Amino acid sequence: MDFGWSKLVPLLVLLASLLFLHIKSPPKLHHSECSLLPYHHYWITSKRIITPQGVISGAVEVREGNIASVVKEEDWLGNVRRGQVVDFGEAVIMPGLIDVHAHLDDPGRAEWEGFPSGTKAAAAGGITTLIDMPLNCFPSTVSKEALKLKIAAAEDKIHVDVGFWGGLVPENAFNASALEDLLDAGVLGLKSFMCPSGINDFPMTNASHIKEGLAALARYKRPLLVHAEIQLESENYLELRYGSDEARLYSSYLTTRPPSWEEAAIRELLTVTSDTRPGGPAEGAHLHIVHLADASSSLDLIKGAKIHGDSITVETCPHYLAFSAEEIQDGDTRFKCAPPIRDIANREKLWEALLEGHIDLLSSDHSPTVPELKLFDDGDFLRAWGGISSLQFVLPVTWSYGRKYGVTLEHLVSWWSERPAKLAGQELKGAIAIGKHADVVVWDPDVEFDLAADHLVYHKHPSISAYIGKRLSGKVLATFVRGNLVYEEGKHAPAACGVPILAR
Hints:
alpha/beta
């Protein structure tokens, strides 16, 4: 009796052949313009992967933008793993850097820097997340309407993830509904100045404004970042005039912003940060002091506040750790910043405090402008814009200048990834661990290079950076943002697919 096998057998053979072809020749993988890799499930391997448990040799599995698993070499080699493999040999694989203090100036002053150029520079430097400051753009981000303009300006133009700080200014400090609207709109926290900011629509605040800001932030459990300098009119400083010979001297500029300004501001801040202690009226809020330059009395005050239970942290920047006042040439306004770069002894104390954990984290304070505002023919430190252009170089700078102090790869992860993620409330970032965003930098700490303005620098105005001409160690090989390979050795992904980060 014929059960139809004569017809069924050829069909089974055909199906078996198709199955064999499917196994031997996988379908062509989809390519996304967001990534230089044509797939979304893959492994990256290296002999040096920096994890919360230490440095391992092994592999990181990336699936649909997140870290799916992290395995040691013995487990990796002992099992057959599905998916594509990208082998980085002995290069360092660590979580992408998170820069909580950068000025990208979009919208309104994109000729200074903008989202496209700034985030390209960030990606090339291993930074996977930026938190943008609320001033130097126009209008400043001091209202929900201004934040909407900021978000619109970032659309389809950011190559890394970007979050936003809002501004605390006298106009909104005593207006609870205005602050709530700004926080509800998605800013990750607030920023204020205790001295003139140099931006007309971002006026300075005092302790009363800051106390109100902390009270509003307590309900949202978000931080207040403060530029801590107070101008002390009672002190006798060298009288300087624009265009004078004295105005070209870096030593003269130092006299205009002495350490006592930082100390006075921090002393005033500590009259209100006790509110952030457990049981205090601003419990849940947190105060963060940006770009500390004074490693003496100012730092001692911060140490004391931490001991007493104030919710307070502090950052410094690579330029305070790399340079000293003694080496800055008169008229070289590339080095002007506020607070100023201080002397060698102060620099040594900053390194000591950073390594001992008294300074919590690092940030770039990337604050560029156009060359005509930064570089004056007469080298006038009074007229020049104050800000160090550094976004793309912070990883090699920290490593190059830090090695003689015993800086380790684990230090870099703590200062540039883990602690910044905590400050910005980004629990899915800052570590190579299961469930985190696949934000990864791959770099070779041993490659040395002389930094030139034409060295594939993606800042809009490379010539104004104080790091041009320096010899550095540490070459970024690849940067992944949410699993997308956004940068690899001089090439960016075709599309800007970074995600605006909004607090909810």
